[in-house]
Task: inverse folding
């Protein structure tokens, strides 16, 4: 699977990255080189192998339960300040590039 | 004052017995940082007020004859991917160049709760992506043992700070080898605990199923003390495991005699530097002489670890780094007229080349049409790699390998070839993928006096065994 400049432009759009022409060209080379190496994974027959997304399925997961009840260890009561006090608004806004004291301010979201 | 290489216990007893004060020690370390760090670049931000306030607190306890907590007065550095309330935290990136977290990372809270004096934030590769600390947006870190060479990465600042005696202990993070490899390059001890052993709350996420926090120290015992302090369930991190924390310090004093150590042929093949091979083989002989049984094992899927890692890690990173969009975290490109322009230009200006490369790779691997071929495939190979370890651990208690195929390379040597840089992680990524713990301990040096690291890998939640082996080797070497 060869990556083209069109692919790079498409992926950069998905990732919200503004790449210069030089960066795009460099990215085509780099991605092809890396994906070329990654291609060796196809040497392995994984048709009967379960994917592994979580490392610690067995520690904490209660297999005697079903569905999301298995992950009860990661749950808490749905109450206000159940784990700890929420961040006060002023603190939450402190790193804002632009704020109005209540909200983060950004350029117009809906453009007509 | 003269700073001899200090350990946690040496500091604590000196402060407890009033032979020195935590304040004087902190000041001495700052003086050393002032003198040496211009050349090395280990620290990005110093937090003197916080450090000296903590030092005063500890000194008052000592003056009142109260027993000090386990890390009382110990100067520590914190890798700049861990949030420290009120102290600038950059993750080595311009996009967080002015970010001041409103909360503390759990590991930092636990360290300070045990009396540690946080001197400052250590330099690292941007968003922990790198194996040489040349990707920091601010400046590279240089290896204190040879300033023309890299300290390793991404926790290069932490490793250099401990190696150059600018801190007694440092915290680092490891996603593909970023604690163990710099420890090996700088000649210090680096411990990556089992995934979930230490809370990731407050760790700026790179790859959520691969990230670990762990200590870089001068001795194995110090690593055990720090682990005992920071490990344990944290309700703020749902992936932190509810597994009891043993007293690692008691555990590591147990004899290593009779332990079965696996040697995997796949870690001793082509690409391994001769001097590294020789040093590691000598270390294994030493362990044998201490009464360990050496058992050949095979980890057949090892050659597939790097591609697996670079698909899973970059995919997870592309998701985790989506939040840096110019809205909330201090950096926004100037003069943007639309939302889209704000996102794209802020990210373009704020992220460095390696970060962009990995976001692109990860986004590609997850995109429609490629998800099955890349990301899902990698997750299946991850299962195979983990099974390799489970199979091996049915025969042995720990596995010994070199930490890295080479000793520290020169600055600039690999920075033009991303793939060559990725291949430097070959012996470390497997542990991250399987979630098992690993420690690197110094085991000699090259003809050019560059440190070499011996890596010991263990079963899930069996840090006790790898600490035992590491300690036994360290004491005998």
Result:
């Amino acid at each position: 699977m060869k990556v083209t400049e069109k692919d790079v432009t498409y992926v950069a759009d998905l990732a919200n990255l503004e790449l210069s022409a030089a960066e795009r060209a460099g990215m085509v080379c780099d991605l092809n080189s890396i994906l070329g190496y990654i291609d060796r994974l196809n040497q392995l027959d994984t048709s009967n192998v379960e994917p592994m997304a979580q490392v610690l399925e067995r520690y904490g997961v209660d297999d005697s339960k079903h569905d999301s009840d298995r992950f009860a260890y990661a749950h808490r009561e749905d109450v206000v300040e159940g784990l700890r006090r929420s961040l006060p608004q002023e603190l939450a806004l402190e790193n804002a590039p632009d704020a109005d004291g209540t909200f983060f301010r950004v350029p117009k979201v809906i453009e007509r | 004052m003269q700073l001899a290489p200090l350990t946690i216990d040496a500091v604590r007893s000196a402060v407890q017995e009033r032979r020195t004060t935590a304040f004087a020690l902190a000041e001495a370390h700052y003086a050393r940082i002032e003198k040496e760090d211009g050349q090395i670049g280990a620290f990005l931000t110093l937090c003197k007020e916080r450090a000296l306030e903590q030092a005063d607190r500890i000194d008052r306890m000592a003056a009142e004859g109260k027993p000090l907590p386990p890390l009382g007065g110990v100067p520590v550095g914190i890798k700049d991917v861990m949030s420290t309330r009120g102290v600038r935290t950059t993750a080595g990136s311009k996009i967080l160049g002015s970010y001041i977290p409103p909360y503390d990372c759990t590991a930092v809270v636990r360290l300070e709760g045990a009396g540690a004096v946080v001197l400052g934030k250590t330099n690292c590769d941007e968003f922990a992506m790198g194996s040489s600390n040349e990707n920091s947006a601010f400046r590279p870190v240089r290896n204190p043992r040879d300033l023309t060479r890299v300290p390793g990465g991404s926790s290069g600042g932490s490793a250099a700070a401990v190696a150059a005696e600018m801190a007694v202990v440092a915290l680092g993070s490891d996603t593909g080898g970023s604690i163990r490899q710099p420890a090996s390059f700088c000649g210090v001890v680096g411990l990556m605990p089992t995934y979930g052993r230490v809370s990731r709350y407050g760790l700026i996420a790179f790859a959520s199923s691969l990230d670990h926090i762990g200590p870089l120290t001068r001795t194995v015992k110090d690593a055990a003390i720090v682990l005992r302090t920071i490990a344990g369930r944290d309700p703020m991190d749902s992936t932190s495991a509810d597994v009891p924390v043993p007293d690692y310090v008691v555990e590591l004093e147990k004899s290593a005699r009779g332990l079965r150590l696996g040697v995997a042929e796949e870690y001793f093949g082509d690409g391994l530097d001769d001097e590294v091979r020789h040093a590691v083989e000598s270390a294994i002989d030493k362990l044998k002489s201490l009464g360990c049984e050496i058992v050949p094992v095979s980890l057949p899927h090892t050659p597939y670890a790097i591609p697996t890692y670079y698909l899973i890690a970059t995919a997870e990173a592309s998701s985790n780094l989506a939040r840096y969009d110019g809205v909330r975290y201090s950096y926004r490109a100037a003069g943007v007229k639309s939302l889209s322009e704000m996102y794209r230009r802020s990210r373009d200006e704020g992220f460095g080349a390696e970060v962009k490369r990995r976001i692109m790779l990860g986004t590609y691997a997850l995109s429609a049409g490629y998800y099955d071929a890349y990301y899902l495939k990698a997750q299946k190979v991850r299962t195979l790699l983990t099974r390799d370890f489970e199979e091996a651990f049915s025969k042995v208690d720990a596995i010994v390998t070199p930490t890295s195929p080479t000793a520290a390379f020169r600055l600039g040597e690999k920075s033009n070839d991303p793939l060559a840089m990725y291949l430097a992680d070959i012996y470390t990524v497997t542990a991250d993928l399987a979630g098992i713990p690993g420690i690197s301990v110094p085991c000699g040096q090259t003809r050019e006096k560059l440190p070499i690291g011996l890596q010991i890998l263990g079963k899930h939640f069996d840090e006790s065994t790898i600490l035992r082996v590491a300690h036994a080797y360290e004491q005998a070497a």
Observations:
- Helices of chain A lie at 5-14, 21-38, 89-93.
- Chain A touches chain B through 58 residues (CB under 8 Å).
